[in-house]
Every structure is written in C-alpha cells, then in structure tokens.
Amino acid sequence: MVNRPDYVEVVVSNLPSPYMESRLEAMRQIKDLAINIDFLKFTVDGMSFVVKNSDWPKFEEEPLNKLSLRAGHNRSVLLVYAVNMRDEEGLVARIVSLVIAAGVEIFHMGDMHDRLLMVIDSAKAELAVSALQEVYPEVTVSDSV
Amino acid sequence: MKFGGTSVRTPEARMQAALRVISAKDQGYVPVVVVSAIGRKGEPYATDTLMGLLMEVDPSVEPDPRELDLLMACGEIMSSAIFAHLLKTLGCPSISLRGGQAGVRTDGVYGNARILGVKPVGVVEACKQGYVPVICGFQGVWVQGKLPGAELTTLGRGGSDTTASAIGAALQAERVEIYTDVDGVKSCDPDFVPDAPTLGRVTYDEVAEIAHLGAKVVHPRAAEIAMKFGIPLYVRNTFSESEGTEIVPSKDLPGRRVTGITHSGKLVYMSVSLKEVDPDHQSEFVAGIYDALARYKVNLYMTHINQGSVGFAVSRAAFALVQDMLDALVVPLGGTVYLIQSNQKPSQAFETQSKLLDAWDKVSIVPVSVAEGCTMVSVVAYEYMQRPGVFLEVLETLHQAAIPVLQTSDSDFSLSCLIPESELKRTVALLHGKFATQGQETPTA
Which residue on chain B is closest to A39 by alpha carbon? Predict the structure, then answer.
C-alpha cells in the first residue's frame, strides 16, 4: 500500500441543465487555470473530482468562485497494490467493504491493472491500513510516492 | 517461445510455428516451447469445448473444480504431444512435458491457481540432451503434503502466457516470445480501426493496463512476471515477418504518449440510491453491499461512491446474479429496516418481503437503477494523465459527436468512459483518431 497525502476533494453541484455542457464549461475554466483533476465522477447535477492541495487556492479565483463548490480538505489517495486485480474475483468489493466497515469513508475510487486507488480522509489512512492488514497481513505500507 | 491457440490450430499453422522453432535453433538459440490448446472457443479441442463435455452431463450440476481442471488441461497436453511429434518429423529432437514435469508448482486453487515457483530441472535436462522441450501451458501441479503424486491445476485466463513468462524467468531466458495471429500490440482493436498501427515498443505497465482494460494481447500476470525478473518480452505474429512489439521497462521508454484505445466487454451500470438511507447508517449500509458483492465474487468496474449514491458496473454475465442478490435484500440498521428493490417493476420476492415487513414501523425502500447495454472505452496513456485538460479533451470529443458518457473512471495510466454499447465502434474510432495518432512527446525533465 502507498499513501499519497495532500489532496482536496471538490464537489461541483447545482450546475444548470444541460448538465454535460455545464460540466464541460466548468472543466474548460479549470483547465485555463492549469489545474489537473483526477477521479472525475458525474453526479446528478454536477461532478466531483480531486485536486492537489497546491491547486486549491486557484478555485478562489474568478471565474471558478462562481461555481457552487464544496471542498473536502485533507484527503489522501490510498493505493492498494494487487497484481492482476481483474482476475481476483470480488477483490475490489472485498477491499472496499473492509475499509468502509472500519469506519473510513471512501470519497472516490479508481483502479489499474495492479492497484486500487481510494480517496479517503488523511486522518483515517492508518485506520484503513490496519483494517486491510488484519485480513491481508502480507501487505506492507510505503511512504508517499 | 509461446504459441497461442491460433498458432497451433491447423497443420499449416503448426508447420509455420515449428519452422520458427527450428529457425531459432539454427541461429544458435536453445528454444523452449510453450503451447496453448488447439484452436479457439467452439473448436473441437479448445478449452471451452472440453469444459462443455462436463457441463452437458447435467447442466444443473456444477462440475467439481478438480475434475474440470483435469479435463481442461487435456487441450494443452494434446497440443504439446502433437507439436513435439511435428518437430521430430522435421528432424528436430523434441519432448513434450506437462506443466508439472516442467516444474511448475502452484497453490491449490483449482481453475485459477497461482504459480508458487518453477523448478525447471526436466526442462534444463531435456535441453542439455539436445531436445526442444514442448511444455503444456496453462497448467501446473499442486504438491500436497502427504498425498502421493500431485494435483493438476490450471492457471486461469491467459495461463499459457503466464507459463511462458514463469518458465522464461526460471531459466533466465534471453527473451520470451509470445506468438499469436496479429502483428503485435495494436494501438486499438483492428476490427474497429483496420489501419491501427502496431506498437513497436511499450512498457510492461502499459501493456498490463491495456490488457486490464480489455485488449487481448498479453496476460497482465505474464507481463508482471517478465517485469519482475527483467526478461525481455516480445509479441509477434506466427504468420508474418513483422518485428512485433517489444515490451520493455519504463526506464527504457520515457516520454509522454497515448498508448492506445481499448474497450471492455458488455457491462451493466447499477446505481444504488442512498436518499432514503439515514446518513448515520450509510457507511454500514454501503459496506454491507460491498461485502455481499465480495462474497459472491463479483468483479466491479467504474466504482463510484458519494453521499447520494453508490454506483458500479458489472459484466453482463454477472448482472443477473447481482440483481438477484440485491433484490428484496433486507438490511436492518439501528431500528430501520432497509429493503432493496433492484427491479424497476417490483419482483415477486420483493412484494413478498415487503408484505412480511408490514409490521415494522420504519421500513425504507432503497431503489437500484440499472443501465443495461453499456461498455467501457479507455484511453491508455503514459505520463499523460497528469496534464491539465485531459478529461476535458476526451469528454468534449465525445460530446461533439453526440456520444453520451454515463460515467468516468481514471487512474495514473488511463481514463475510461462508460458509454452505450451501440456507440462502441464510433467511440473507439473517434478517440483513436484524436488521441492515439498524436505520437510521442519529447520527455520533459
């Protein structure tokens, strides 16, 4: 496992319909400010994503401050490495259920061929790690990369 | 040298493959061959056909995994015996070896065993005596404590690629060559973009990610083993002289680039609304759903969690199971009973459960919305996703073409969009034209 700290979760809501056009317009503004977004997910009337802490102040600037934004600070991306995850049936669901059952809220998720990425509260990263190590004792933890 | 099913499918194909082995030997190499079962799905000796022999005994009785493994392994056994015999007839001494004889030791998970180690004593000995070993891919043995002999196990999907990489690593091979019926790793499915170029070089990570997201090139486990042991891996066409694709470590191929466009199979997107779930119960409720999905060994794609809903895509093959599992599920939490409704029209099970719960004060219905007929298209890229505006470029491209995107997912190496299956071909072609032909940028410091 690897813990990458220093992220902010951003939820954009109350976008005007048609939503996809509004989302694209918001993304254009974000791009113009040279902000890279990760973990983009569509919500009913908007979207949510994750940015680096260092990019958050840019959201205070025009025109992004006109968006209806909610920020969740102190987020970490917890990477759980599992080679060839797709062939391990039920593994993603198992990891997610263990983390949530430990009282850790997962705000966003993504996956790759060899890792599951979960955006969680930085303060609860250790709790998530402990819950996973209880079931998968072979898993080790590395520092942020 | 690993030859896939299509490379050993017909006498003509086997001849081509055999001549490649002999050519390698003539060039001074010591070839070691791994073969898959003959042919593809539906053909007489293919793995799926063999499985069908057990299934047709009584479709209502699930075959024992042990018997299934023993039967499935026969395809590779036949293939190796035939290929070894062919080499002999061409004047090349050869010997067929089962996975266990080649030293492939696995755990005891029938149907999806993991290789624990390879002790290729028999392979080395055969080579020393001048034979070309022809090893059955996809199989190994589980050596149990006190029982005589060993249990035959199979390695799961893509197992022959994994066998080749593992044997190559154990032998400290100069290279591992995976032979198939295409020229190498393509930048997208040539059925959708016929002139999709073959990638000359890609990294282990890229090829594993491409395979993870749907492309049938090299199995990710095979790429991972080759990466771990530093064995150069090649994907080549048995039937052409093209250079194929060389798979290399990241340090040997720096630079930002789009690797290719992949697409996964048929998916169904399910979204569980949490509007009726008390915020104090949401975590436990969501954990319960995921726990059930894990117990039923369901693979998830495009997982999405927020305060309003939980969403995930499942393969169409798994959909009926998941829908049944969730429908009429009762989740009692802190005095409230939550009843899940996963069919738009209430099922009989749901109606019955609902009546039984009439006596309870607090019953909340949790609806699950379902979007059938979806698929996932992914842009796989290297050092690309950290660039501002990548999401925008992909979504804008699809929006301008009036292709609806239902959800997205991303990672360090990829960006995936869930789209209607009816738009698959157009989406792949569009994204390939826009992104995969951009070429490679010069590495930045």
Answer: B410
